[in-house]
What does this fold into?
Amino acid sequence: MPLLERDCRRDEVEEHKKNLPLSGEPEDYIEAYLMEIEELKRRGKLDRYLSEFGLRLNIEDLFFAGNETTSNTVRWCVLFLICHPELQEKLQAEVDNVVGSDRMPSLNDRNRMQYTQAFTMEALRLSHLTPLGFPHAATEDVEIAGFRFPKETMFLANVRRCHMNPKFWPDPEKFEPERFLNPDGSVKTKVPSFIPFSFGKRQCMGESLALMELFLFMAIFMQKFTFRTTTGLPHPKAEGVESITWKPPKPFQFLVEERKH
Ligand code: HEM
It folds into this structure.
């Protein structure tokens, strides 16, 4: 039996099973899933799509899809901060104005912290963490724009090309959060050629969660710390590890200084 099938997340699921049967609202995803299995079993309607093995794979998927992506985007954000100390000052001014230093930033502050949101979006654009998205295959023969694609043709979303296309992004290599702001300072909601979470039926399920997390990371970092290079000079260039599937930033050193309010 493959290792994944035998061991993956078994302990978490077994731990949750000790709380069953539950009567009230589920407290987390695992409880909700297990309760649904129980309910379908009771009604004689359990099919092969819901199972404990499926649950364990789902948990593994969520950890994989949500963990590396978000943590690498935070690393990109820190790298862009040390490349652009002047933008870091703008972010700090925004959090100081909106939140101050007596309480932690929260998601309720998000709508009033447009520059922080725009900075994060620009980091997502320029890092294009998944340069070609994830591969998908046609489930049947299709014709698109006059081209015929047989069943099982592999399709890739060219995220890198969309994010670096000068038609949509003048001077595309430049890190410029203002691209994501309307003239009145509000954040743009529909941005053509911006697909960090891909698009269509299989687009990232964690997009809203990721944007919430990234906002909180940036707002809290900027309230509490200043990030600098070890030389005191701006970091020369934000470079990633070049690969067609995955683009984390190249390793870099930095100093974290606590802000005195
Ligand atoms: C900055 C953070 C993130 C980025 C850049 C990102 C990006 C992506 C991309 C490009 C895809 C592929 C979509 C496709 O197949 O066309 C994807 C899929 C997915 N993401 Fe994310 N993601 C992020 C965070 C998260 C988080 C926090 C979660 C959940 C905890 C998550 C869960 C998923 C799942 C479950 C899928 C598969 C969706 C499916 O195949 O139907 N992601 N993500």
Q: What stands out?
A: DSSP finds eight helices and six strands in the chain.
